Amino acid sequence: MDIRKIDEEYAVSGQIAAEDVPQIREMGYRAIVCHRPDGEAEDQPAFEEIRRAAEGEGLEIRQIPVGSMGVTPDNVHAMVDALDEMPRPMLGFCRSGARSTRIYEQTRHIRS
C-alpha cells in the first residue's frame, strides 16, 4: 500500500484490499472513498468486501466510481458531499491513486 498525503484531510492510494483496512485505521484514517468501479480488473477485490472490512474497523466508507470517461461533474459533487459528511482524515483509492487525486483537486475549486 503506497499512501500519498495530499493535505491534512486527504490522502490517496492505489488499490487496497480488505486486509489493509486495519492498518489504514491504525494510521489514523477515519474514512475511505473508493473511486474504482467494481469489475474493472479480474484481480480487483469487490467494493463490498472492502466495505465490510472498513465497517468492521469502525471506518466510514463510500464508493464514488470514476470510470473510463474520467471525472464527471456528478463525481465531483458526490465527492464534495463525502468530504462534507464523512470524518477526516480520509483515504481515497483507485487503481493507482490518479483518479482519487484528480477528483479531490476538482473539489477544491468548489469547496474554497
From TrEMBL:
Pfam families: BLH_phosphatase (PF04273). This is TIGR01244 family phosphatase. It comes from Pararhizobium mangrovi. InterPro entries: BLH_phosphatase-like, Prot-tyrosine_phosphatase-like. SUPFAM superfamilies: (Phosphotyrosine protein) phosphatases II (SSF52799). NCBIfam families: TIGR01244 family sulfur transferase. GO terms for molecular function: hydrolase activity. Gene3D superfamilies: Protein tyrosine phosphatase superfamily. Residues 2-104 form the Beta-lactamase hydrolase-like protein phosphatase-like domain.
